[in-house]
Write a structure and sequence with these properties.
- With 71 residues, this protein is mainly alpha-helical.
- Helices cover 38% and strands 0% of the residues.
Length: 71
């Protein structure tokens, strides 16, 4: 019974290796625009800019400009 437990533990622990699931040269396929959350990326970028300008929240989302909305 202990041997069976040891074998099962060893088999299950092999799934916890540190090898990456995606190779670095395959990551370009993950960055496909169809994988985005928003349906219209241009409108989403504009609304993000408006949000940053109105809330004076700058930098956390990657936008530029200040609270006046001039950039």
């Amino acid at each position: 019974m202990r041997a069976l437990f040891l074998v099962c533990t060893l088999l299950l622990s092999t799934g916890c290796t540190i090898n990456p699931w995606v190779a670095p040269y395959e990551r370009q396929f993950i960055a496909d625009p169809i994988m985005g959350f928003e349906q219209d990326p241009v409108a989403a970028r504009y609304m993000n800019h408006v949000y940053e300008a109105r809330e004076a929240a700058r930098g956390a989302e990657g936008g530029s400009g200040g609270g006046c909305g001039c950039n």
